[in-house]
Every structure is written in structure tokens, then in C-alpha cells.
Amino acid sequence: MEIFTLNIGQGQFVIVTGKSQAFIVDTYVPSDNSNNIINVKGALAKILEGKELIGLIVTGFDADHFNETGMKIVLNKYRPNWIMYPKYFKKTDVADACFKVIESFEKQKKFTRVSVSLSKNDSRFYTTLSTEFTFEVFSPHIDDMNSSNNCSLVIKVKEISTRRTYLITGDTENDRWDSIVRYFGDVLSSDVLDAPHHGSKNGITAKAISLIKPDTVLISAGVDNQYGHPDKEAIQLFTTYAKHCYSTNDGKGQSLKTVATEQGINSYIFKV
Fold first, then answer.
1. What is the pLDDT of residues 169-189, one digit of tens each?
2. Domains in the chain, start-ordered, CATH in brackets?
3. 21-25 and 14-17: which strand pairing?
């Protein structure tokens, strides 16, 4: 499994590839090219060469995850088979514009919408979306769908061939992690962690990350962003429980390529 965490500023755009299949997590594309922002179209062309883009995961409906420009690039050029998003809907102009892009795409190609909200009777496993990956959903849960951040998708992706795992987290915050820990406990264990809420100090609890036990933490944050992400407290927490922690806003900004094989996990700077 290869995880490409693109330097797109204060937002998220991640591409995950296997041997022949790939999927995308979030679609933020900035309107400017400052701070060494990567060319998303160029990155997609390079990373997806020879791969089938099977799906798109949208972790939440805020503009730094659910982006009209990115949606158009992904849907119109790479034409995935499915799109997964939380059932909770935050009505905004951004969300309306993105769903219009989805509706337009539906007229061109038959594909599957996977709208997720767990309840006590729901299966959290999605095993038919890919032949190379399985998806295990931990959030949102019907018991505490009280805000858009806490309704972010939290999904453990497992590559079948290597059994390596990647935990996608969106903008999930501390109070939701308390519930996730209560429901799922040790099942959360994952090799690579997508740092919740861009490394916010309210993005994850010590109990949650102690159960996740990641080898590597990947943070998607903008250079000199107004929120101060990643927060020093979050960095301290990550480095306490993980062997490695990397951020896209290090230096003048960097995109990251993380390779997870049976032999180990390594991260590198990625350039188009």
C-alpha cells in the first residue's frame, strides 16, 4: 500500500494505491499556488498511471475536505465506481456545489453512493468495494451525531495482500474519540494514522492513540496556517505513541509518500 498525502495547504487530498487499484480521500484543491503547493492534476496523473481509481471517500462536508474543483477533477477524469461520505449533512454553499457535481456525474456513469451512519444493528465492514482493500467504519455513529466534525468518517483501510492498515479520521475531535474508544477499543489498532483535524490539540485523546498504536502519523496542514496546526500538544502526543510523525507543512511545505509493505513502513518526500 502506498499513501500519498499531498501538500495542498490547509486541507486534505490523499491518494491510496495498491497493486492495480486506488482510491482518494477528500478533494481539497486550493485556488492559489503559494507555499510550494503541489500541482494536483500532475500528481494524480503520475500516481494513478496504470491504476484503476475505484472510489472516493469524503470524510466530511467542510470546504477543506469537500471541494468542488477537486470533485470535478476526480469524477470527470478518473470516473470512480463509488463515493462514500457520512450520512450527516451540513448544508452549505460548498456542499451544495459539490453534490451538484456528483449529480451531474451520475447522469454520465452509473456508480454507487455509500452514505454511512452506524447503529447497533449496522455492519461496519465494507468488503465488496475493492478486490485489494477492505474498509471498516468506526464513525459516525447514530448515538452522537451532534456536529459536522464529530460526524467525520473514521475508517480503517486494510490492504488484503500485506495486511497493512491505514486509519482515516477526517476532522474527528476528542469527545467523539471517547465514544469510538468505548465502542471499539483494541480493534482501532492501525499501522498508519491520518492525524485527526489536521493535528489540532482537540483532534485525538491519549487513550485513543494508545489503542491505535500507529507506527507512522501523517498530518495534512498548511504552511503558516491561521489555526497553528499541527499543535505542539498534538505533536507531543503523536511522538509519544508513534515511531514516526510527518507533516505536509514542514519547511516550505512537502507532499509525502508512505510505503507500507510486509517488511516495514517508510515515508519519503514526494515530488511530481
1. 999 999 999 999 999 999 999
2. 2-270 (3.60.15.10)
3. antiparallel
